[in-house]
Structure formats: structure tokens, C-alpha cells
Amino acid sequence: MSFLSATLSRVKPSPTIAMTAKAAELKAAGRDVIGLSAGEPDFDTPQNIKDAAVAAIAAGKTKYTAPDGIPELKQAACAKMKRDHGLDYTPAQISVGTGGKQTLYNALMATLNPGDEVIIPAPYWVSYPDMVLLAGGTPVVVETTLQNSFKLTAEQLESAITPKTKWFIFNSPSNPTGAGYSRAELKALTDVLMRHPHVWIMSDDMYEHLAYDGFEFCTPAEVEPRLYDRTLTCNGVSKAYAMTGWRIGYAAGSTEIIAAMRKIQSQSTSNPCSISQWAAVEALNGTQAFLAPNNETFKRRRNMVVEMLNAIDGMTCPTPEGAFYVYPSIAGMIGKTTPKGTVIDNDEAFATALLEEADVAVVFGAAFGLSPNFRVSYATSDDALKEACTRIQRFCAALT
Ligand SMILES: Cc1ncc(COP(=O)(O)O)c(C=O)c1O
User: Fold this and answer.
1) Tens digit of pLDDT for each residue in 141-193?
2) Cβ pair 342, 318 in contact under 8 A
3) Which member of 19, 75, 358, 393 has the greatest number of CB atoms within 10 A?
4) 192 CA → ligand 1 middle, Å
5) Counting Cβ atoms within 10 Å, is residue 342 exposed (0-12), middle (13-18) or buried (19+)?
């Protein structure tokens, strides 16, 4: 019998991290690999945020804090929810964790019992199903379609709900597709939830600020105020503020669930880094002026990548509303063979051959629960992106 826990055997390591590690390994061996697999902006953290961290160190704010966040950061999160969404929360309704990942994990750990189902639209952020499994729940994956721009329909949500459904995890704009739900599309989903009072919604708004072409972000609790009591709104500073390494995320919800999340955090990691929390206060309260120029850069890159990938015979790449990902389909290439003799029988074979034969690292669609596709992260320089897309074009053109 294994010394390791049975729960662990149900969980797989993050494939996005594995792909990034493989690319790094090839790079270290001297290969000119271009990585399009990492989920983080290539911009530096804005200076005002770094200055706030330095000031926090100088002021001796280097000790334990309350387990789920300093009052100043909770207050900043409340102000943000009011400013951006017109939603009223008190600090007792805010939980600050070590990255958005921890707050999502805490919420699932705090609420799931064996047999509880969690609806997850696919393609999904890789961690959702495994977190549900770690917490003892059952992921119920519902596949979206490219034809519907990878968005879940009201009918799909309705038919996935059972008496055992506890949560519906909603992520817009999405990792890995970049798809963003309009107010009307989201309202159609919240209307379904209004008919099923036992289902709660966990909204992962991590990519809220990364939206293009005038896309208007909205979050479930503002679209359907009657869902306020059964919505947990999760967000963080990692993506928009280029703070992935600082590890700060937060969630807003009912005092009961927030207290339960606090209990878990207090018995596991305790408070997120005190210095990062002060930096996050500045991120939320300080200037947001850098968001617009950053988004212009992301939009320019998105347009270039979509155009170059759609020029490939057998590839279809929708133009998404936000985040910094695209999720092209390679349905037209399945069954083809690379010059080195690899048969592309699925998207994992495609991504592996692309890395080994063309030195471009992407993440295969099966990792996100919808195939045959792959995810490109365009959070890298224009020159690197152009070269990578040229390599992908050449690689695909050589398939027979
Ligand atoms: C959809 C989504 N939610 C949450 C997270 C977690 O972010 P953090 O780095 O703050 O833990 C990520 C990070 O990749 C993400 O893509």
C-alpha cells in the first residue's frame, strides 16, 4: 500500500507548469525555444506598487497579520467592489489569500462534502477540477463549443444541474480561451441559477481588467443582485497588476463562508505575505493608469496572433474578448504527419511535436478539457510572438 494519500492519486500535476518546465529544460540545453505557455504578463510590476512594498518593509510591517488579511486591504477590496461593480461588502465579507488560487481552494475546501457536484465549463483553468477533487467533491465538466465562442449556454447549465450541484464555477474572461461573457450572456446563466436556489456561483474574475475592443466586463452579483447571497466573487492582483510572484488574491462573499475560509487558512498557511498585502493595497487604491496602455499592447498582440494562426490551413482561431490567451482548433490537422514522422493523432502530440521539432512551447487542449486545441499565451514580446507564429505556420505547412 502506498504511503501517499488516496486523495492524491485522483489529482494530476498542473500541465501548464509541466510544459513551461519542459521548455525551460530545452532552453537550458541550448535550444532557441520560444515559450508561449506561461500564464503571466511579461510587464514589470508598476513602480508605485513596488514603492509601497519597500515602504512597508521600512515601516516594519514585516510581522504576522490577521490570517485572512490586513484591514486596509480588506477595505481596499470593499472599495473596489463598490467602485467597479456597485456592490456593497464589509471587511468581514472579504478573505485575502496567498494568490487567487488559495482563495478558490479554501472556498472549495470549506464547502464541499463527498458527492457534492461542481459544474465546470470546459475548456477550464487547469486547477478547477483538481481542486474540487482534492476537496472531496465531484467535478461535472460541461464542454462548450468553438461555434459558441467557448461560452456555456443557459440550456447547457440547466441540464448539468442536479440535486447534488453545489457550485457553478464561472470564469470570464477565461483562461484558456480569453472568452468574455456579455451582460446578456451572463444574465441568461444567472436566470437559470434563479430557478435552482441550492446552487451557488463562484465567479473567478481574475482577468477582469484585461478586456479589449470595448468589451464591458460584468460579474454575476451585479448582473443579478438577487444572487448576492450565494455568490463568491474571486479576484486578485496577479494578472492585471503584473504581480504573479507577490501572491495576493481575495474573495468577497457571505460572512459565513468567509469565516469558514479563514478557519482553513488559519490552520494551514496563516496570513499571506505582509509586504505583498501592502503592495496590493496600493494596487487596488492607487492609479490604474497603466492598465489602458498595457491593454493596447495586449490587443495588438492578440490581433497579430489571431491573424497569423488563422492564415494556417486547418487551423481556426476565434478572436476573444479578453485575458491574454487564444485557443485555436487544430481539427483540420488531426491524422497528419510531421517531417520527422510523428503522427498528430491528438492535441498533445501536436504540442509535443511543435516543441521538439519547431521550438515553440504551447499547452495542449486536453489539459484544459477541450480538444483538439492548444493554448497560446500572448503575454510575451511582439518580436518573439511573430517569430513563434512564423514557426507554427512553417511547422503546420510541413505536415503531410
Ligand atoms: C482563471 C484563473 N484563476 C485564478 C488564477 C490564480 O491566480 P494567482 O496567481 O493569483 O493564484 C489563475 C492563474 O493562472 C487563473 O488563470
Assistant:
1) 999 999 999 999 999 999 999 999 999 999 999 999 999 999 999 999 999 99
2) no
3) 19
4) 26
5) middle
Confidence of residue 331 (pLDDT cuts 50, 70, 90): very high
**What's the rounded mean pLDDT across residues 23-38?**
91
Which runs of E-coded beta strand occur in 18-111? 34-35, 94-97
**In angstroms, rounded to a whole number, what is the distance separating the alpha carbons of residues 80 and 90?**
12
Question: Which residues does ligand 1 sit against, CB inside 6 Å?
Answer: 39, 99-101, 125, 171, 175, 204, 206, 236, 238, 244, 249
Q: Among the atoms of ligand 1, which is closest to the Cα of residue 238?
A: 10
Task: Say what the pTM is.
Answer: 0.97
Distance 247 CA to ligand 1 centre (A): 10
Give the three cell numbers for residue 8. 492524491
Average per-residue pLDDT in the chain?
A: 96
Cα dihedral 233/238/239/242 (nearest 10) = 150
Between the CA of 109 and the centroid of ligand 1 the distance, in Å, is 17
Q: Report whether 45 contacts 242 (CB < 8 A).
A: yes
Cell output for 191: 436566470
Give burial (CB, 10 Å; 0-12/13-18/19+) of 195.
exposed
- Please state, in angstroms and rounded to a whole number, the distance separating the CA atoms of residues 58 and 277: 15
Phi, psi (deg, nearest 5) at residue 167: -125, 150
13 has pLDDT over 80: no
Q: What is the pLDDT of residue 309?
A: 98
CA of 205 to the centre of ligand 1 (A): 9
345 vs 17 pLDDT, higher one: 345
The pLDDT of residue 19 is 80
Half-sphere exposure of residue 238: CA atoms within 13 angstroms, side-chain side: 25
